[in-house]
């Protein structure tokens, strides 16, 4: 009979609690904002493009600064950067709640994204330091992701209640007590990783990354209003391509690059990044599109919208924990495959949902998507932590999460262009968006099957990683 794993020390448990609170804060914000979109639109007189920017301003800043945040965690220590991210996010949440117009709200959302970017890579680095045993680490990562999944699950319902009873600003102000508790817990109890004082910040790479992602986001978001042939949309795409190309050139020559290209010599890193992109592309895009579909086409209240999302989000925690157990026993490849297959099936089923569809007909596809995504998330994090040298965990987790957030930006932008409240047939737009999500997910599934030749045993692969040289060597 296999002996159950236990957490090594009290400090490890407290580190897990601190990092989980940080991820809870970030993920709670994602789902509650989607439920409040219609009320924000009416209260602040926002159009569809402004609504997309409210969502994407956060995600864009998150994606843009994740890599630098990982480097900062490696240089100054994960605990210091993690606490700083908590503080920025909490203060920005106050700014969001007090916003009186689109400009202030979007600016505060950018600051929230920067705070979130500081938190996520350092949280994974803290977990790597607190749980050196690979199997215990897999369990810890699954719990870390599971608590965040709990926030995702509770977010629509909590958001619906808050918006209905207290108005949309309450969804941001609820972050304040969580943030204060997380900051105190991190400073008082979380262990730290060793800082590398020689690690330099790649300002040129960071600047080019921001320019490229802003150009891409602008083109995708504005394409819904101007069309793909609009001059400013084409200009945004051109800026993204040029800046992206220059970014690769700079990173290839930089002594301390923002994105060490040698990281991509591991198939597990490449596949995990692509899988993460596809996960957020479908999930974030679906949350945005379905929220508008529920409230603009079916005329549901925010609370009813939150309840409609519950089948997709409520099962996430259980599936996350199950994924950790599967990963510890069979390796990370199996949860990836099963998860992506389920998610693709769920997206395809949404292509048959109509405005007058029953609650069950809507709930079942959302349930498949929720379980599928939740199975895959812990396994991709474990795959990256397993294959990367410990001194590069901050940057590696930043790469993975950057890919995920880019997927979210693209999903919200493209789905928002297909499902706009001023369109006559929102259901048809939702069908096109669901099919697009299914195709991207299936492409990721093919990359997993072809790119990961082994099951991904965390014990065997962790030993292999320790014996191999780090990317900087």
UniProtKB/TrEMBL annotation:
It is a multi-pass membrane protein. The chain crosses the membrane at residues 53-73, 85-107, 113-131, 143-162, 168-191, 203-221, 227-250, 271-294, 306-322, 334-353, 359-380, 392-418, 430-452. Its main location: membrane. Pfam families: MFS_1 (PF07690). Gene3D superfamilies: MFS general substrate transporter like domains, Multidrug resistance protein D. This is MFS transporter. Signal peptide: none annotated.
């Amino acid at each position: 009979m296999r002996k159950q794993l236990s957490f090594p020390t009290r400090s490890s448990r407290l580190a897990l609690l601190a990092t989980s609170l940080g991820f809870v804060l970030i993920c709670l914000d994602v789902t509650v904002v989607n439920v409040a979109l219609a009320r924000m639109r009416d209260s602040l007189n926002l159009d569809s493009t402004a609504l997309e920017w409210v969502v994407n301003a956060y995600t864009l800043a998150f994606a843009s600064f994740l890599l630098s945040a990982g480097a900062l965690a490696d240089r100054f220590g994960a605990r210091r950067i993690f606490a700083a991210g908590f503080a920025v996010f909490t203060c920005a949440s106050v700014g969001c709640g007090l916003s009186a117009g689109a400009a202030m709200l979007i600016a505060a959302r950018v600051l929230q994204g920067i705070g979130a970017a500081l938190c996520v890579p350092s949280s994974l680095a803290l977990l790597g330091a607190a749980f050196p045993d690979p199997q215990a680490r897999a369990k810890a990562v699954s719990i870390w992701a599971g608590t965040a999944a709990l926030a995702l699950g509770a977010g629509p319902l909590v958001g619906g209640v808050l918006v209905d009873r207290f108005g949309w600003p309450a969804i941001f102000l609820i972050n304040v007590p969580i943030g204060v508790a997380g900051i105190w817990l991190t400073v008082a109890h979380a262990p730290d990783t060793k800082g590398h004082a020689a690690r330099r910040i790649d300002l040129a790479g960071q600047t080019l990354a921001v320019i490229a992602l802003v150009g891409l986001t602008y083109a995708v978001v504005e394409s819904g209003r101007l069309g793909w042939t609009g001059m400013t949309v084409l200009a945004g795409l051109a800026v993204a391509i040029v800046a992206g190309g220059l970014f690769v050139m700079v990173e290839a020559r930089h002594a301390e690059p923002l994105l060490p290209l040698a990281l991509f010599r591991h198939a597990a890193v490449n596949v995990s990044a692509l899988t993460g992109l596809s996960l957020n592309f479908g999930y974030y895009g679906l949350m945005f599109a379905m929220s508008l579909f529920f409230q603009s086409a079916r005329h549901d209240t925010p609370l009813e919208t939150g309840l409609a999302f519950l089948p997709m989000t409520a099962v996430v925690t259980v599936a996350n924990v199950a994924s950790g157990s599967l990963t510890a026993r069979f390796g990370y490849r199996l949860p990836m495959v099963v998860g992506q297959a389920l998610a693709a099936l769920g997206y395809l089923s949404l292509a048959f949902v109509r405005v007058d569809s029953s609650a069950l007909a809507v709930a079942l596809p959302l349930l498949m998507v929720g379980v599928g995504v939740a199975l895959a998330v812990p396994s991709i994090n474990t795959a990256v932590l397993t294959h990367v040298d410990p001194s590069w965990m901050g940057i590696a987790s930043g790469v993975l999460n950057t890919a995920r957030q880019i997927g979210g930006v693209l999903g919200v932008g493209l789905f928002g262009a297909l499902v706009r409240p001023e369109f006559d047939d929102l259901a048809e737009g939702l069908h096109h968006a669901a099919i697009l999500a299914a195709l991207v997910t299936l492409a990721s599934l093919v990359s997993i099957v072809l790119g990961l030749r082994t099951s991904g045993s965390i014990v065997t692969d962790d030993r292999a990683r320790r014996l191999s040289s780090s990317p900087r060597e």
